[in-house]
Design brief:
This protein is an alpha+beta fold. The chain folds into 2 domains: 12-144, 2,3-Dihydroxybiphenyl 1,2-Dioxygenase, domain 1, CATH 3.10.180.10; 148-265, 2,3-Dihydroxybiphenyl 1,2-Dioxygenase, domain 1. It has helices at residues 33-44, 93-102, 161-172, 223-232; strands spanning 13-14, 23-30, 47-50, 58-63, 66-73, 84-89, 106-113, 118-124, 130-136, 144-145, 151-158, 175-178, 186-191, 194-201, 213-219, 236-243, 247-253, 259-265. An 8-stranded mixed β-sheet has the order 3-4-5-2-6-9-8-7, covered by helices on one side. The longest helix is centred in the first third of the chain and has 12 residues, at 33-44.
């Protein structure tokens, strides 16, 4: 969307090192990188530059000169789900990975070094939702928020919040606070007094074909226009617009089926 290319403004936020436990990056692993780059480049105004290759071909999406997300290619011989994965900052990935294991989670990849950019691991919580951990070195994570085309929020969609919220609180030493206005079984996760992510329990209403998973939200100027553009670019609408405390939201999928949400911020 052309509005994603606008210059930085007074509400934009550039980032240095991210506090431990805060979402610091979002990465998408796909089969066809060229088609995926074309889709997100047209939708969000992203350009791309090469990134480290510890897991194969990888590029970083750049907006207004700042890196905001990553796209990599799945191994051709492995049938893995195509999905956006949030990464949470850590000062010590190895220690965080051990805490994840001791709290009933699983570490599927790593910890491993990413060519001087940092150190990472990919894990899942006790209910199976996948997330990443990032210990920054040369690459601090996303460098910009608050403009169209940047990640705006992360929310865990799961069966219930009670047990899994305790897991994330222990792993990342975070606080949590119920959000009564958001409906039952919903909490907001706080780091250093700032809301950084949400957890929403759906019970048996959670789609069985997805299971528990993290949803990444990207900011746009107009969600309805973004939904139309997603369809024109080969994606589709998963859930029509609905209003949240964040603003107006539409959940969509890209041409390979990776779901994400677009949100126009409520002022």
């Amino acid at each position: 969307m052309t509005e994603a290319r606008r210059p930085a403004g007074p509400n934009d936020t550039t980032h240095a090192r991210h506090s431990p436990g805060t979402p610091c990056w979002a990465s998408l692993m796909v089969h066809g990188m060229a088609v995926t780059q074309e889709f997100y480049g047209a939708l969000f105004g992203w350009e791309f530059r090469p990134g480290p290759r510890p897991l194969g071909p990888y590029v970083r999406a750049v907006l207004n000169g700042h890196e905001v997300a990553g796209i990599g290619r799945l191994p051709p011989d492995r049938h893995l789900p195509v999905a956006w994965t949030p990464y949470f900052a850590s000062d010590d990935v190895d220690a965080t990975a051990e805490t994840i294991r001791s709290c009933g989670g699983t570490v599927a990849v790593g910890p491993l070094d990413a060519a001087g950019a940092g150190r990472l691991a990919i894990a899942s919580d006790p209910m199976g939702a996948v997330f990443g951990i990032w210990q920054a070195a040369g690459h601090l994570g996303r460098g910009l928020t608050g403009v169209p085309g940047t990640p705006a929020w992360n929310e865990l969609l799961t069966y219930d919040t009670e047990g899994v919220a305790k897991f994330y609180r222990t792993v990342f030493a975070s606080g949590q606070e119920p959000v009564l206005s958001g409906g039952p079984d919903r909490v907001t996760v706080y780091i250093e007094g700032r809301p950084v992510a949400g957890i929403h329990g759906f019970g048996s209403a959670l789609p069985p074909d997805r299971g528990p998973h993290w949803m990444t939200y990207f900011q746009v100027t107009d969600v309805d226009a973004a939904a139309v553009q997603v369809a024109a670019l080969g994606g589709h609408v998963v859930r029509p617009w609905f209003d949240t405390a964040l603003g107006r939201v539409v959940t969509v999928a890209d041409p390979e089926g990776a779901t994400f949400s677009v949100v126009s911020r409520a002022d």
